[in-house]
Amino acid sequence: MTFVEFAEKHKLGIDFDTFLSYIDGEGRQFFSVRINGQEFDYNQGSAIKGNPKLHDVLYCLASDIRSLETSSDFEGWATDFGYDPDSRKAEKIYHAIKEENAKLIKALGSEMLNELLNCEE
Length: 121
Known about the structure:
By secondary structure, the chain is α+β, with helices and mostly antiparallel strands. The chain has one domain (3-117). The protein has helices spanning 3-9, 54-66, 74-80, 88-108, 110-117; strands at residues 15-16, 22-23, 29-35, 38-44.
């Protein structure tokens, strides 16, 4: 199942406040998006114009969360993804992904999240 099909099957929508979005000096767009009442940070590169698409946001969230499956702790995750296990920045990223996971469970439930993690592009 694709991310588009997943969103259609579960009648998911995306919402965001335009006043919370901004463009940085390199043209990247940053958004605070809501899915089923849970807020997530999302950004897209300067080549992508317009508002974020739900299937793109779901793909990014699933990709981040899948990265947690490869290791049992921060040190393993950091090593797997080329970060220094002593890096505070890497640890912050790791905990942000864990927080995304918890918010997605609240937004979708465990069963639907597992289904999301099995989606393909």
